[in-house]
Amino acid sequence: MEIETALSTGASGIPIVRAWNDVETSIIHGFIGRQGGVSAGAFASMNLSYFVGDDARAVDENWERLRREVPELKLVARVNQVHGNIVQVVTRATASSRARADGMVTRDPGVMLGIFTADCVPILMIDEKRKIAGAIHAGWRGVIAGIVANGVDAMVSLGADIENIRAVLGPSIGPCCFEVDATLAERFVREIEGSERHARAGRPGKAYLDLRGLVRDRLIGARLADVNISAVGPCTRCASERFFSRRAAGGKTTGLQMSFVGFAE
Length: 265
Hints:
With 265 residues, this protein is of the alpha+beta class. Helix content is 20%, strand content 26%.
């Protein structure tokens, strides 16, 4: 199901899903799909990750195309994502390092935070008044481990006002397609209050989870106002022609799309 999607396609032909008005502010953000690049095969066509087996020359060209579309992406901080709960504070001086983490926050203008996904939930956060940004990679393991609350706490630790933090959940696997073992759904219900609202029975021994619903609840539990939380984009598996999806690829290696956020210099 498509949710509140604002899609823009520039001269380079790269579709970018956006949630906030970048034109009148210094917010730089977006959710990039798989279209508009030169990668081939399982990585077709806008794969931006060098670590999934794609031809590095193709990834180089994809980055060149993206930077022509979004010139502010000169300095993109990235992390080695491990499905954990660590959130890294990033500065201009440390933006080129790649710590083992699943989230980043920064208050340095010009530093863009890049998160990679192929079904997990990318979360972008901003405090527009304080010019503080955050980006979180939230899969089911990270949600259980507390990555969402840790991301909000890291924003606040940099000086963000909890009342001003806005969060948007990007394209990710939907409750229509996120089928898991029933024991995992039971673990969510057991360990995270309210999770039963986001689980339904599937085939024998299976259940479906609403991962974005679970993430939204965690954001509210971390004291974000419900009105400040939005979601954009479709289920990545349903729209696998537009977005990379490990589920759609049958669990095989595929490309990764990037979501990014930061404030202009």
